[in-house]
Specification:
Length: 196
């Protein structure tokens, strides 16, 4: 097995190897063994407001799948929403390892596609029902075996949904932010004691 190094993403760093060379949007990559589960978000010329929304507001993920492996995902942060297709057949065999965790974790990075600067880096835990959905659809996609076959299922799914049906079927799940414990230099542990 090749050693895969996980890059450390930090706000303010330049990130040129992002999937938004062709335009803005979002991309979800799950079950790569050389990277954490990644949600990439790309926007050009991100404003301070947008950066705050991407970096701090509650995140939600909605998924619609078809029986044959089509998968449409919407990630929303405050009033920003990104629609994307999941195509896990794109991951080469050597780099793909399905993990059947009850709660998948996903790292999100938001990049300003105009400057290649990282504007937000967050960690989320997916609820169990959503994790299950992803695991099942990824299995179906890997069985289809190639990118084009999965793209076709994705297109069929998208074409079968009107905007109304999309909103009806898309069930949004809140993502749990994984926040590193705040460290302060006073050496005290801040436990709030409510027993009086």
């Amino acid at each position: 097995m090749a050693e895969h190094n996980t890059p450390q993403f930090q706000v303010g760093h330049t990130f040129t190897d992002h999937p938004f060379q062709e335009g803005d949007g979002a991309m979800l990559e799950l079950f790569r063994n050389d990277l954490p589960n990644m949600l990439y978000v790309g926007l050009g010329n991100i404003t301070a407001d947008e950066q705050a929304v991407l970096g701090q507001t509650d995140a939600q993920l909605g998924v619609i799948t078809s029986d044959n492996g089509g998968c449409l995902v919407v990630a929303s942060f405050g009033d920003l929403a990104f629609e994307m297709q999941l195509n896990s057949a794109a991951i080469p065999e050597d780099y793909f390892t399905l993990t059947e965790e009850k709660a998948l974790s996903v790292s999100m990075i938001a990049v300003d596609s105009a400057t290649n600067l990282l504007v937000a880096v967050r960690e989320f835990t997916l609820p169990e029902v959503l994790s299950r959905q992803f695991i099942e659809v990824v299995k179906a996609q890997r069985e289809l075996g190639n990118v084009d076959a999965v793209n076709m299922e994705n297109m069929q799914l998208i074409n079968s949904l009107t905007a109304e049906a999309l909103q009806e079927k898309m069930e949004f799940h809140p993502l749990q932010s994984v926040i590193a414990a705040p460290t302060c230099g006073c050496g005290h542990h801040h436990h709030h004691d409510h027993s009086h």
